[in-house]
Amino acid sequence: MTKPPIYILAIESSCDDTAAAVLENNKVLSNIVARQSIHEEYGGVVPELASRAHQQNIVPVIDVALKKANIDKSQLSGIAFTQGPGLMGSLLVGSSFAKSMALALNIPLVAVHHMHAHVLAHFIEEEGFDKPEFPFLAMTISGGHTQIIKVKSFFDMEVIGETTDDAVGEAFDKSAKILGLPYPGGPLIDKFAAEGNPKAFQFTKPKVDGLNFSFSGLKTQILYFIQKNVAQNPNFIQENKNDICASIQYTIIQILMDKLKLAVAETGINQIAIGGGVSANSGIRATLKEGEQKYGWKTFIPKFEYTTDNAAMIGIVGYHKYLENQFEDASVVSKARIEF
After folding, report:
1. Which of 170, 182, 230, 236 is the most buried (most CB within 10 A)?
2. Does residue 147 sit in the same domain as residue 278?
3. Residues 82 and 12: beta-carbon distance below 8 Å
4. Do residue 296 and residue 313 come from a single domain?
5. What tens digit of pLDDT does each residue of 88-119 get?
6. 95 belongs to a structural domain
7. 190 is in an annotated binding site
8. What are the residues facing 146 on neighbouring strands?
């Protein structure tokens, strides 16, 4: 006798995207994201504006997710939500709605760690995308995080390397800001880099022990480089934009790859899975794929829509936690910072 399907409604509201998804077991039926354009004029996310926008977006986003999945709320088995890390005001909107809806429907509530979700997004059932086998190494790269994680099982993960200061996504965005590019600038650096020479300008890679990262020094180096050259030639950025972007991107990718090679050497694990918003970067994806040929790695890159913040990745963690009866009651609290 076949088991009835498990339907999970997932809610993600850790930063400035309001997202909802419905999963049938490990398959995504809908994955809806409402993006907030209001932050562009400020050059970064404004927490108070983000939480207000979440309040406006959350009901219509969940309504669309249920309708697109062709699922009535009465069919839901459980509700998963992002507990943290993230902006507290944003997290509270998602958690409050999830608690209220779970209570009203009398179904289980599942709290999800945002970074666990980026790792386990690889286990969403998606045609043409393989799943890594345990143990594997996960590199999570986003606007707020840069980590190398040893993943032994769905819920046994160990951070073996992380940034000591800024995240890689911030390095991309701040570099773009120095160049006068609009927010978010990371995708624009990727776009211009495709037309440039990555060896045109040399930037020094930071020396950090072990598997940890540092990007603050690189940002400062880029700032001084631009200031010096613009002082000599006011049109320097415009005349060399593609080459500057390509050189910045190349340096950041080499920093990531050096640590990844070291992690493989130290752990003996050659399955590499990447996640987080910066994993959408085409240069990083291409370099990782080249690593399969160069170093004999097996590389796993999730479907593009599961790399940036989304609710489907919250849902896959919710599904596996549901199978293990890892539920919460209404006393569960959102946390801006939360242990991995």
Report:
1. 170
2. yes
3. yes
4. no
5. 988 989 999 999 999 999 999 999 999 999 99
6. yes
7. yes
8. 141
What is the tens place of the pLDDT at every residue in 222-240? 999 999 999 999 999 999 9
Q: Is there a binding annotation on residue 114?
A: yes
Residue 41 predicted with pLDDT over 70: no
pTM of this structure:
0.91
Q: Per the annotation, does 186 bind a ligand?
A: yes
40 and 324 Cβ atoms separated by less than 8 Å: no
CATH number for 200: 3.30.420.40
336 within some domain: no
Question: Are both 189 and 220 inside the same structural domain?
Answer: yes
Q: What is the 3-state secondary structure (H, E, C) of 13-26?
A: CCCCEEEEEEEECC
Give the pLDDT mean for 25-53.
72
Beta-sheet pairing, 271-275 with 136-141: parallel
Distance in angstroms (rounded) separating the CA atoms of residues 183 and 174: 9
Report if residue 338 sits inside a domain.
no
Would the annotation count 173 as a binding residue?
yes
Task: Check the annotation: does 144 bind a ligand.
Answer: yes
- Dihedral sign, CA of 121, 328, 160, 87? positive
Please give the structure tokens belonging to residue 198.
Answer: 């990555």
Residue 113, SS3 per DSSP: strand
153 known member of a binding site:
no
How many separate domains does the chain show?
A: 2
Would the annotation count 142 as a binding residue? yes
Amino acid in position 222? I
Range of the domain at 90: 7-121+307-323
Residues 79 and 193 in one domain: no
- Rounded to whole angstroms, how far apart are CA atoms 172 and 245? 9
Based on the domain organization, do 79 and 147 belong to the same domain?
Answer: no
Q: Is 100 annotated as a binding residue?
A: no
